[in-house]
Amino acid sequence: MLTRYAIEGSGPSLLLIHGVGARLDNWDGVVAALGDRFTTICYDLRGHGESSKAPGPYSIELLAADALAVLDHLGLARGHVVGHSLGGLVAQRLAIDAPERVERLALLSTAGGRSEEERRRVLERLALVEHDIPGEHFRRSIGRWFSDEFQRSNAELIERYAARNMANDPHCYAAAYRVLATTDLVAELHRIRAPTLIVTGEGDVGSTPRMAQLMHERIPGSRLHVLPGLRHSILVEA
Q1: Which of 15, 62, 83, 220 is least enclosed by beta carbons within 10 angstroms?
Q2: Assessment of whether the complete model's pTM goes beyond 0.85
Q3: Is the Cβ–Cβ distance between 117 and 139 less than 8 Å?
Q4: Which residues of 128-147 are buried (b: 16+ CB within 10 A; e: fewer)?
């Protein structure tokens, strides 16, 4: 499989793992904000961006193996790891299964310990992704991802993200979304030993502050930060 990646900056290695339907340039604002404090490594998940459109099904173990393959390809025995949304689940799996590879960990807008109602809602969204009109999931998700003020002030930007979402391979998108919707690693989080930062938006209904608090309680020595007024797309809005 071919994986597209990009490296910028200098300093300690920092692997950045994006979420479903995104691609490596979703991290552009973060990379710019970090300046030269880190060597940032962004890559397109399988089925996304310019990486191979590998057919599903996918699993969280497979996506974590892809992340390790990027580190191996670059000759990196160890580095910091940050994941957003699905990328946060990949980062969790990586930190649990290969603790010797993860120096520090950041979990952004990611899930863990969903309630029955939260599981029902994410499976409904999965059904929409798998069976509905391409792009419909994005249109229905704008209010979950962006604050009202951001939507009003950034209509053109949101249209660009909608067009990018439409460009996703629908089968790969659905395969990745199924991993997001059906993976929950909360019972294993106590095994994470890397110093961990957990961040979510105050109004994120898919990766709620309650989930973030639960992950914080399960991961020894972790820190929690809830961003006031924000929803799911904190990489863009924050």
Answers
A1: 220
A2: yes
A3: no
A4: bbbeeeeeebbeebeeebbb
Q: List the end-to-end C-alpha distance of the chain, in Å, as a whole number.
A: 33
Three-state secondary-structure class, residue 175? helix
Q: What is the pLDDT of residues 43-101, one digit of tens each?
A: 999 999 999 999 899 999 999 999 999 999 999 999 999 999 999 999 999 999 999 99
* 62 vs 84: CA distance, rounded Å: 17
Beta strands in the chain (DSSP E): 5-9, 13-17, 39-43, 79-84, 102-108, 196-201, 223-227
**Tally of CB atoms within 10 A around 76:** 15
| Side-chain-facing half-sphere of 237: CA atoms under 13 Å | 30
Residue 109: closest CA among 48, 9, 26: 26
**Count of CB atoms within 10 A of residue 101's CB?**
19
Token pair, residue 133, equals 């009109």
Residue 192 to residue 176: CA distance in whole angstroms: 24
